[in-house]
Amino acid sequence: MMAEDFDNVLRTDLYGPFFCCREFVRRRAGARGGKIINITSVHEAIPTPGGVAYGAAKGGLLTMTRSLAMELAEQRINANAIAPGLIRTPMTSRRTDDPVARAEEMPAIP
């Protein structure tokens, strides 16, 4: 993997939520309260071949969300993460469009 590709994934999947959270907190200053919900992935904890950057970004997002929950509690801002499993998207099309691959994935999806 090229460093540029790794950086692009981190900028999208980790920096993007960071900047959104930061702006939310700025706008809520003095308002007391609010909720942050970040979308991580099961790949925050389940590595996949070829998914180094994505897993690193989603794992980082989970840790960032946990840290924000602690840091923002005094301001009554809740921070939570949702980690969905396999969802049919262009990124997962190889696994969702192939009936054999999909059948292998389905038992692991609640």
Low-pLDDT segments, ≥5 res: none
Q: What is the global morphology?
A: elongated
Count of distinct structural domains = 1
Count of extended strands: 2
**String of helices and strands:** HEHEHH
Fourth CATH level, the homologous superfamily: NAD(P)-binding Rossmann-like Domain
Number of alpha- plus pi-helical segments: 4
Task: Specify the helix fraction band.
Answer: 40-55%
- The secondary-structure class comes to mainly alpha
Distance between the termini: 32 Å
Structural notes for this entry:
This protein is mainly alpha-helical. Helix content is 53%, strand content 11%. It has 4 helices and 2 strands. The chain has helices at 3-28, 52-72, 93-96, 99-105; strands at residues 34-39, 77-82. It has a two-stranded parallel sheet. The radius of gyration is 16 Å and the shape is elongated. The mean pLDDT is 90.
Question: What's the gist of this structure?
Answer:
With 110 residues, the chain is mainly alpha-helical.
What is the element layout, followed by pairings?
Elements: H1 3-28, E1 34-39, H2 52-72, E2 77-82, H3 93-96, H4 99-105
Parallel strand pairs: 1-2
